[in-house]
Amino acid sequence: MAVTISIGFCQTSSIITLKGMIVNATTGEAIPSASIRISKNNVTTISNEKGEFIFKISVENRGDSIHITHIGFDPVVITINKSDTGIRVIKLHEKLHVLADVVIMNPMDIIKKAISKIPDNYPSSPYLLHGFYRVYGTKERNIIDISEAVFDIYGENYVNKDKQLKLIKSRVDKDLTAFNGFDGLNFGAKPEGIFRDDLVSNAAQSDLLSEEGLNNHQFLFNGIVDYDGKQAYEIEFDQKDGLKKSLNKGKLFIDVSSLAFLEFDIQKSPKGLQFWELGFGQRLSLKLANIQLKLLGDSGRIMYQKFGNKYYLNEVNGTKLLHIKGGGKHFEINPLRMKAEFLITGIDTADFAAFKKGDVFGKTILIEGEAPEKNTDSTDQFWGNYNLIQATFNVDSVAKIIRAKNETLNYKRVLESRLSKYKSDKTTRIDSILSFYHRKDQFNGTALVKYQGNTIYERSFGYADKENNILNGPQTQFRIGSTSKQFTAMLIMQLVNENKLQVEDTVGKYIAGYKHGKVTIQQLLMHQSGIPNFTDVYFDKIVLKQYTMDELVQNFCSDPLEFEPGTQFIYSNSGFAVLADVIEKVTGKKYKDELKERIFDPLGMKQSYFGTVPHVASMAIGYINDQPEHIYPVENVAGAGGIVSTAEDLLLWNNALSAGTILPKDKTEELLKPRVEWKEYDAMYGYGWMIDKLQFNASKKHTVQYHPGTEFGFYDMLVRQPDKDIFIILLNNKSDFPRFDMTDLILNELN
């Protein structure tokens, strides 16, 4: 096996910029975290998750050697020449592994010796580190928060805690619409956190390497492995059983010859995750702001490099999964995926001094708080000659999208003012609303409005497929995400109507051997089962391959319950996946076939189906940050999502609900009956339906039933107001849009 690196060189008057991509020459897969370094002065960068990198070096380094390394491969050295103007291809060949003699060693002895050798292996004299970090958060694959910074770190010696950070430059953009306008949450880094990431420097205080930490973990010696040309001890660890603490699990690598720590692969142990909590001050701040936050997962890598005869921190990357919701501003993000990338881009050990007092950044101050409120410079303009980690996305495009979304917070107020002066009919005024949002690049799809028995508005906006210049139209098909849940609930109620099951039945009656068999069907319908949301925990797995219904339920919907069933409401896709499995067990048919035979065919919904089919011209492409959606097997969200439909088909669905066509009206009322409160949305939940309380002005006098949907670039809103025979469907294929504001404005016009 080999790795190919394609490098393009370009040069300014003082800087040579190298751009390239590192891929597996055999499979074509990207090779992340390859090191690209000038050893002479330790100027460093790494390849990103896509194998891409950008490397900025001084023209004074022309003629120097660039070392390209990756664990498991022989290093390659290239020389920067004047003639380097095109693409060079470099192959890294896999090391030939020679099996070491089998040895059995005490892992605790190795770790304690490595800790005692820290003063020898790490710098005992002053040093200066040049660093770059990027922190970004995603909600349903949309980037909603991003911050970047370059800085210097000064230390007297490696174990001295009086480190100093000097902030050189930073920038931040945050999508406030994801938090419903709430601006009290800030994400990013503080110097004390950056310093704490260095486990070796903080060994005595670490919850892994301190004396208490060592006592709280169990260690397993895995043997001696090749680590980037060195022999290294590989030691596995996990927190001990029975501890009511949130501690660690993972692996660490220690150099055999020097006993230097080389790498920590570390995560929060599942054994103690339920005991994780913020510090007292942070808990108090969140409580005062009426914010709830729960840690779903925390993992990362900490790596060290050798410069001269000493080791220094080199790279830290990590991912946190958070469930966060606000009762005051009524938002919920589950999960918020926060990713951090931190790289030491250079090391100095001479010709520098401690920072001046005014240059030292406060250890407990959030760096993002010092970033400019607005910065429209491009990435190249902003960072200039500073080295950074090449992003896996277009940072400038993301920042532009975030700023455009934040502007939408004022759009509703602007429109309300304008509409108050219009004297035209309802249809024209509704068109004014939708056209306004489309012009602002906030709505791209199809809208349909029914009022008092008649379709008074139907119009499509923008492209279904911009690469092929295909416009959205009445027959354009959209994935409707969680709006699919109401169809699953309908299938369940049809089976209830046929006396084939009862909502009070336990799941175990139909799915033999299921771990949570005592949960009832009604608890699943109302998100009161306590089964953790599998699309949060196993997202990375379900997008890679298709699973059977039984595999989904048994492997991904069987984690320990979050609460006693029936005692709380926590929205969970797992419950509706289990319902889809129940439907298959009761009927003996596939979930998708039951949808077709019981709903789509009887109602004439000819453009609607569940699952993955070959792309056709009528199917819209979902766009995330202006890029085509990630294709994945939607069968993995059966019951909770995965249905494709059109505005006109969904009108047929609404009409059938009103007329009792496929389910008697008394059973339909059971679907739509308010049953449990969903506080974050100021709504009640029925069976796959939300019944509004305070989101929409119309709800003060009328019953408004609705459900939003989200699925990889597709966002929608389906709304019913029965007393005036109102039906609104908004289907969008360009990421999120102000669907609650737009719905409220349209309902106001109709009422």
In short:
With 751 residues, the chain is of the alpha+beta class. The chain has 19 helices and 33 strands. The radius of gyration is 28 Å and the shape is globular.
How are the SSEs placed, and which strands pair?
Blueprint: E1 2-11, E2 15-24, E3 35-38, E4 43-46, E5 52-58, E6 65-69, E7 76-79, E8 87-93, H1 107-116, H2 118-121, E9 127-139, E10 142-155, E11 164-174, H3 191-196, H4 211-216, E12 217-227, E13 230-239, E14 248-255, E15 261-268, H5 280-288, E16 291-307, E17 310-326, E18 331-348, H6 379-383, H7 395-407, H8 411-419, H9 426-439, E19 445-451, E20 454-460, E21 463-465, E22 470-471, E23 478-479, H10 485-497, H11 521-525, H12 534-537, H13 539-542, H14 549-556, H15 573-587, H16 591-603, E24 609-610, E25 623-624, E26 627-628, E27 643-645, H17 647-659, H18 665-672, E28 676-678, E29 683-685, E30 690-692, E31 705-711, E32 714-721, E33 726-732, H19 739-750
Helix pairs in contact: 9-19, 10-15, 10-18, 14-15
What does this molecule look like?
The chain is built from 19 helices and 33 strands. Helix 9 runs antiparallel to helix 19 (739-750). The strands form 7 sheets. Strands 11-10-9-18-17-16-15-14-13-12 form a 10-stranded antiparallel sheet. An 8-stranded antiparallel sheet has the order 20-19-33-32-31-30-29-28, sandwiched between helices. With 751 residues, it is α+β, with helices and mostly antiparallel strands. It is globular, with a radius of gyration of 28 Å. The longest helix is centred in the last third of the chain and has 15 residues, at 573-587. Helix content is 23%, strand content 32%.
